[in-house]
User: Fold this.
Amino acid sequence: MEIGHNWHKWKSVIGNVVGLGERVGLDDETINSVAFRMGDFFANHFDPANDEQRLMKELWEEGDEDEKRTLASLMARLSHRKTQHH
Assistant:
C-alpha cells in the first residue's frame, strides 16, 4: 500500500480521521492514542514517499515513547486544523 507522494493529501487523510473521531465523541486522549498507533504503523510498514514523510519517519524513529506521543498529537492537530480551513 502506498501512502502517497502528495504531502498535503496525506495530511488531509490524517485530519479527516481526527475529525471523524471528534464527530463520534472521542476525547483528545483517545484521538491522540489513535494518532500514536497510526504513526507507529506508518513508520514500521511504509517507506517514505517524499521528503516530509522521510523527516517524520526519522523523527519518529529517534524519539522515545513520550516524544512519539507528542509528535503524533502535534501531527493530528496540525492535520485536522488544515482540513477545517478548506
